Amino acid sequence: MTDTTLTRRSLLGTAAGAAAFAALPRAAFAKELLRMSTLGPGTSPNLVMTTFANIVNGALPDYEIQLNATGAATRHVLEVAMGRSDFCMSSPAIHALMRNKAAMYAKIDEAPELVKKLRTMLNFPMGVYHIAVYGASGITSMDQIKGKRVFLGPPGGAAYATMQRLFKAVAGLEEGTDYEAVKLGWDAAAAAFQDGNLDVYCNPTNAPSPALTQIAVTNQIRFLGIPADKLETEAVQKLVGRPGFRAATLPAGVYGENQLNETDVTTLGVTVGIVSNENADEEMIYQMTKAFYAGVEEAGESSPWLKAVTPAAAVKDINLPLHPGALRALTELGVEIPEQARG
User: Are strands 200-205 and 149-151 parallel, antiparallel or unpaired?
Assistant: First the structure.
């Protein structure tokens, strides 16, 4: 009799528990998994977007952002626009190329329509283009890279195209004819440069870059720049004047005593950002944006590089409308929203 009673109570309890479990909202027992694509380790976007994912994952228990740090941003934006990924790094330059069906988008007929499906979450300074060589190489200017092995950026990416054009504009050097463009991803290229398998390593990143700082501890390095007499030429000005680009300075000595530059280096600076699909949930984007900047403010003292990642910078150089959730969050944070960001 006792066994029967216990069995019935157990069954009733199980049934009641199952009913209660079924009544719970999905978020109560399962996180929504979201995919965010960024550049590889050693780049500023990877650092910022890893921080974004860590802050959001810790502050918002309903979501889990998983990072994908392979491939090029020019491909990632297509995946987000087509709804195959949730977030990625992009840039004002990429948006302009998509609208104009130019460069790597020249053969993608859908590019002008796909860019309309993207929305900005926030922009941030990517940093400046580092064109690094070892001191022992004897290379002191761009025209001396003729015949060398050069990493421009991942093939098909915006950095690759930018450096390809810069070497042509400054030194008249053609990729594939005057120098070899080594086809690697960001993390593999950093390792190859450390191992001495590259002569020139290009990386748009904030200074000092962790990867280059590590190299400069035990090796003399030099950064190549744009000579003053080349800066005002039409070809260089076309690069400097692109959406999100500007002439920028890489300070002498920022990498310590082993940096051989005696004066500041003139190079390219660039703004990038995080984008989502236009159909991303408004409340989710709002919560993530607010949580991120709250986390950045809290971590600012222990991570000085984060001080440049501010709500005001979220709309700098913007040429793609803000997602409504980000618009609401940034407005609440006191950001003056430019007209082109409102859509």
Answer: parallel
Verdict on whether the full-model pTM lies above 0.70: yes
> Under a CB-based contact definition with an 8 Å cutoff, are residues 18 and 69 in contact?
no
User: In sequence order, which residues have a C-beta less than 8 Å from that of residue 325 and are 6 or more positions away?
Assistant: 280, 281, 282, 283, 284, 285, 286, 287, 288, 289
- Single out the residue of 98, 110, 217, 93 nearest to residue 165, CA to CA: 93
Q: Are residues 205 and 265 in the same domain?
A: yes
Q: Are 65 and 97 in contact (CB under 8 A)?
A: no
Segment 192-220 shows an average pLDDT of 93
CATH of the domain at 134: 3.40.190.10
Residues 243 and 328 in one domain: no
Burial degree of 154 (CB within 10 A; 0-12, 13-18, 19+)? buried
Q: How many residues does the chain have?
A: 343
Residues 195 and 267 in one domain: yes
| pLDDT of 145 higher than 90 | yes
How sure is the predictor about 9, in pLDDT bands with cuts at 50, 70 and 90? Answer: very low
If pLDDT is split at 50, 70 and 90, which confidence band does 38 have?
very high
Residue 4 CA: distances (Å) to CA of 1, 9, 14, 16, 276: 5, 9, 15, 18, 57
Q: Is the pLDDT of residue 267 over 80?
A: yes
Percent of the chain residues topping a pLDDT of 70: 91
pLDDT at site 257: 97
Count the Cβ atoms, other than its own, within 10 Å of residue 320: 25
Phi, psi of 65 (to 5 degrees): -90, 125
Structure tokens at 311: 């709500």
Provide the domain count of the chain: 2
